[in-house]
């Protein structure tokens, strides 16, 4: 079995590591000569829309998937015409445009914050009377990890925010007074079989995920499963999908979804019976899906921008380090550590130790 992956970053790397025990081989298409997954398979070095490389990928891979949602739409369409592509191109088209995404949530009856499309500074000034302050403006496409967005606290912020986004098509969203941020990771097979991981409770700073903690028996698990099932069924989805949500006093409001494996599910590598990465491969290769229950108290801590020494991390009991083979750079995810313990008390201690260590080397 040979899987083609658009992108060769850390998510592709973790997919490959999960696939090796299953005898899966990998071909990566990525424009970066030093992409961190390159050592784990064959690297087709070039742009994502290179017709010759796409044709080669389609011919040689049994199935093609992707590690990020900003793959050009025409690339997904070309590949779909020549080979099997999972998740489907429709999910990619919806997930990479925030207006399409929010409209889709609304069509399915999934609650969202108030939002409006913005294509000019005049648009922005006009819609703020309806949206109100505070709010956040985001580019419709290409934004991730806090990039391509700006907080609007008063009318004085509008001009600078619009200039920061360089006038690209955007969306304004009302601020959600959330209690916490959570996400649910779900998997769907070609036959429509569904499995769900326990909710992750997520902590961000600067728009970047810092900590994701598995929350077994969370009271909002069933509602999150209801919402993500609507997405999966409507898109005829195959593979892993992550739905990010705000908990607003016990009610869930959708933020966004990612049609791929997700940072908030990295705890599943050690912390679940089957990791999100293995289950994604199982789904797209039409293999039986694996069990998703947590095998202990578990969480994940990201290392952003810089790294402690391997020895420093491994001296922490119950910690499992995952290096991405990426050079340190401001705002860049370069590694994570999973905590896996028997008790909640031990988990909280391990999270604190890992977080304190990350804060010494994180750049923001």
Comma- or semicolon-separated keywords:
364 residues, Rossmann fold, Dna Ligase, domain 1, D-amino Acid Aminotransferase, Chain A, domain 1, nine-stranded antiparallel sheet, four-stranded parallel sheet, 12 helices, globular
Describe the structure.
Strand 1, helix 1 and strand 2 form a beta-alpha-beta unit. The protein is α+β, with helices and mostly antiparallel strands. It folds into three domains: 84 residues, Rossmann fold, CATH 3.40.50; 61 residues, Dna Ligase, domain 1, CATH 3.30.1490; 182 residues, ATP-grasp fold, B domain (D-amino Acid Aminotransferase, Chain A, domain 1), CATH 3.30.470.20. The longest helix has 18 residues. 32% of the residues lie in helices and 29% in strands. The chain contains twelve helices and 17 strands.
């Amino acid at each position: 079995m040979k899987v083609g992956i658009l992108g060769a970053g850390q998510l592709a790397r973790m997919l490959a590591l999960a696939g090796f025990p299953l005898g899966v081989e990998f071909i990566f298409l990525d424009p970066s000569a030093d992409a961190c997954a390159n050592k784990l398979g064959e690297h087709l070095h070039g742009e994502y829309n290179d017709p010759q490389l796409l044709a080669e990928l389609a011919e040689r891979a049994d199935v093609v998937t992707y590690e990020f949602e900003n793959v050009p739409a025409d690339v997904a369409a070309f590949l779909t015409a020549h080979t099997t592509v999972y998740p489907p191109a429709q999910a990619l088209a919806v997930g990479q445009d925030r207006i399409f995404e929010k409209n889709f949530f609304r069509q399915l009856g999934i609650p969202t914050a108030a939002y409006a499309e913005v294509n000019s500074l005049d648009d922005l000034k006009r819609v703020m009377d309806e949206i109100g302050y505070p709010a956040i403006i985001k580019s419709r496409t290409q934004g991730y990890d806090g990039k391509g967005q700006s907080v609007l606290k008063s009318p004085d912020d509008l001009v600078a925010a619009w200039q920061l986004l360089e006038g690209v098509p955007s969306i304004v969203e009302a601020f959600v007074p959330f209690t916490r941020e959570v996400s649910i990771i779900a998997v769907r097979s070609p036959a429509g079989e569904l499995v769900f991981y326990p909710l992750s409770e997520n902590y961000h700073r600067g728009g970047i995920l810092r900590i994701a903690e598995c929350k077994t028996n969370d009271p909002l698990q069933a509602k999150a499963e209801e919402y993500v099932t609507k997405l999966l069924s409507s898109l005829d989805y195959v593979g892993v999908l992550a739905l990010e949500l705000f908990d607003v006093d016990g009610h869930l409001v959708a933020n966004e979804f990612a049609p791929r494996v997700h940072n908030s599910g990295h705890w599943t590598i050690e912390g679940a019976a089957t990791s999100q990465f293995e289950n994604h491969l199982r789904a797209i290769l039409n293999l039986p899906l694996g069990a998703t229950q947590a095998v202990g108290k578990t969480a994940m801590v990201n290392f952003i921008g810089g790294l402690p020494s391997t020895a420093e991390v491994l001296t922490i009991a119950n910690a499992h380090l995952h290096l991405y083979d990426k050079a340190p750079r401001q705002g860049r995810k370069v590694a994570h550590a999973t905590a896996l313990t028997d008790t909640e008390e031990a988990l909280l201690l391990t999270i604190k130790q890992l977080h304190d260590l990350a804060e010494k080397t994180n750049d923001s």
